[in-house]
Every structure is written in structure tokens, then in C-alpha cells.
Design a protein that fits this description.
Low-confidence stretches: none
Number of strands: 0
Oligomer: single chain
Distance between the termini: 50 Å
Shape: elongated
Largest sheet: none
Order of helices and strands: HHHHHHHH
Number of domains: 1
Structural class: mainly alpha
Number of helices: 8
Length: about 170
């Protein structure tokens, strides 16, 4: 088995596990997360909680098994863009900055997801087993992942309205 397949398995499973963990955290802390979303400027915070939680759990699960890897990677890119735009950009680069934490972490998630969409899930994936891996990676995967970022911009425009004091 070529090393690239093992590398893609490690990247895919780890990125999926991180997204699943975030989704489960939000699932278990529904009220706290919904209140936080409202406090940072989200209109319809319960809907945003549902979208965020479902996206993180769904993308995470798909990445772990290697199914629809490029669309799942696009979801990770979208989640990272939203996190950057709503919270992390204000704190600068370093994730250890307080109170909002910097953007290095979400940028790393987005970069890993984009790379995964470009290279594909590898042979140790359901995409490969059912014969769709080559249809969804390469330039198609890159375009799909970038489309995730574009969709996140639409979501932000529709639902994120921070106060003037929070927008800086």
C-alpha cells in the first residue's frame, strides 16, 4: 500500500475526528452554544446551532469513513471560514491569544481540508471502494472546497449581524 494512502487515511480520520468532537461538544452544550451564538451576533441562533452542529458531525463522520470526501472537506472549509469571520480574526494569528483566540487553528483546518479535497481520500476509503474517489478529487475537489467558502459567505451575510462594538 503506497504511503500516500496511509497519509491520507491519517489526515482524513484525524480531521474527521476533530470535527466530530466539536459537533458533539455543541450537541451536548446546546443551550450554552445557542446563547453564545446569539451573544456574538447571530440572528436565529437556534437555527445556527443546528446548522453548525449538524455540519460538524456530518462532515466529521464522512471524513472518518472517507465517503463524499470533497463535499465533507468543503463543509470543513465553510466551518473554518465562518469561525474566522465571526470570532478568530479579531485576535490575530496565535490561537493562544485571549479572549477570542487567534486564527491559526481554523486556518490549519481549512488548509488540511483543501489539501484533502485536492489529493482525495486515498484507497483506504469508501469513496475508493465504491469507485467515486477519482470523480471528486483534483481540481473538482478544489472547486468543491472553495464553493464551501462561498456558501459560508452567504450564510454569514444572511444571519450574522454583530453590533458595531463587536464588529471590530
Amino acid at each position: 500500500m503506497p504511503e500516500i494512502d496511509v497519509a491520507m487515511l491519517v489526515l482524513r480520520v484525524w480531521l474527521g475526528t476533530v470535527m466530530l468532537a466539536h459537533g458533539v461538544k455543541h450537541l451536548r452544550g446546546r443551550e450554552r452554544t445557542t446563547n453564545w451564538l446569539a451573544s456574538i451576533g447571530y440572528r436565529q441562533a437556534p437555527l445556527q446551532w443546528l446548522a453548525m452542529t449538524a455540519s460538524e458531525i456530518g462532515a466529521g463522520a464522512l471524513l472518518v469513513v472517507g465517503l463524499l470526501t470533497s463535499p465533507a472537506s468543503a463543509a470543513v472549509v465553510a466551518i473554518a471560514v465562518v469561525a474566522y469571520a465571526t470570532v478568530h480574526h479579531k485576535a490575530g494569528f496565535w490561537v493562544t491569544a485571549r479572549p477570542d483566540e487567534g486564527w491559526e487553528y481554523v486556518a490549519t483546518l481549512a488548509a488540511a481540508a483543501l489539501a484533502l479535497a485536492a489529493v482525495g481520500p486515498g484507497r483506504l476509503s469508501l469513496d475508493h471502494a465504491i469507485g467515486i474517489a477519482d470523480d471528486l478529487d483534483g481540481w473538482v475537489g478544489i472547486v468543491v472546497a472553495i464553493a464551501g467558502a462561498a456558501l459560508s459567505a452567504v450564510q454569514l451575510a444572511a444571519f450574522f449581524k454583530p453590533s458595531a462594538a463587536d464588529a471590530g
